[in-house]
Amino acid sequence: MLKKILVAVALALPMFASAQTLKVGLVDINEVLAAMPETKAAQTKLEEAQKRYEAEYQKLGEEFQKKYEEVANMKADELPAIKERKTRELSEFQQKISQFEQQVQTSMAQMQEAELAPIYQKINTAIEAVGKEGNFSLMQMNNPQIVLFYQDPVVNATPLVKQKLGL
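RESULT FIELD:
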């Protein structure tokens, strides 16, 4: 019986000896993203679009204010059909403003996705390359909201990713 245990241990020993430690690389994606010129260009484009939408929204607000004042300043003896038409126009205009707000939100989200998707793809490609070149077992995004338990060796791979991107 003892002989069988010793043989089993002897056979398993090379597996333990050849087992390598887990090498984890941490990447601060926000730091990499902030350092990329493409991010700054995308941010500028998004800010310009936002300003244009805000200017259009301002115009709609002014137009709504005029229509509102027109309805509010109607004389008490105004004909009912005219009051009803102007009130209905005001309500319809308010609905158009709400629809515009929703369209702007959707458009900005789509624009942000279109602008940032290629940047994230470029970062992911660099992370994969650094992971392969550095023989990392795992590349983890360093997120302050996520607390990981890990032990050595953990490597801050952010500088390696930035170097891979030429930053």
